[in-house]
Amino acid sequence: MSFREKMLRTALLAGIPPFLWYFSAVGLSLAVGTGVESMSIGRLVAVLIGGLIIMLIAVVVVSLLNRREGTMVPDEREHRIESRGIFISYHLLCTGVLMTIGAAWLGWSAVVIVHIVAFAFIIAELTRVVVELHGLRRGY
After folding, report:
1. Using alpha carbons only, how large is the chain's radius of gyration in Å?
2. Comparing C-alpha atoms, which of 94, 97, 92 is closest to residue 129?
3. Which of 30, 66, 106, 127 is least surrounded, with the fewest CB atoms within 10 Å of its CB?
């Protein structure tokens, strides 16, 4: 497994749990009917910062354990794989922006709109990482 792949796997595995926990709790509270009242931007910011800190710590630990193994300087194949991941995540992010515009047009609250934007950003970034991992595994 390459150094780049180890870093991507670490970022993915460290990043999924806090966001999965938070957005599943928000989804459940929306299903019950108390979601909009229980949502807060402060809690969302805390989860975003906490998830970022967890990911940074995990990536630093993995990079220190594997510092002699490789470099993060991409070759031509990795540039192509990275471009494919950015391309797909861009379209997901555009979909999130359109959903945000629709939510604003329907008159949803600012808290819900901020959650839609954050969810779209996180889904786009995790998709980029998954696409890059898939490309690195396939070798094209």
Report:
1. 17
2. 92
3. 106
Q: What is the pLDDT of residues 91-123, one digit of tens each?
A: 999 999 999 999 999 998 888 898 899 999 999
6-45 CB burial, b ≥16 within 10 A, e <16: bbbbbbbebbeebbeebbeebeeeeeeeebeeebeeeebe
SS (H, E, C) the chain: CCHHHHHHHHHHHHHHHHHHHHHHHHHHHHHHCCHHHHCCHHHHHHHHHHHHHHHHHHHHHHHHHCCCCCCCCCCHHHHHHHHHHHHHHHHHHHHHHHHHHHHHHCCCCHHHHHHHHHHHHHHHHHHHHHHHHHHHHHCC
Whether 99 contacts 117, CB under 8 Å: no
Start-to-end CA distance of the chain, whole Å, equals 15
Place of tokens 């954050």: 118
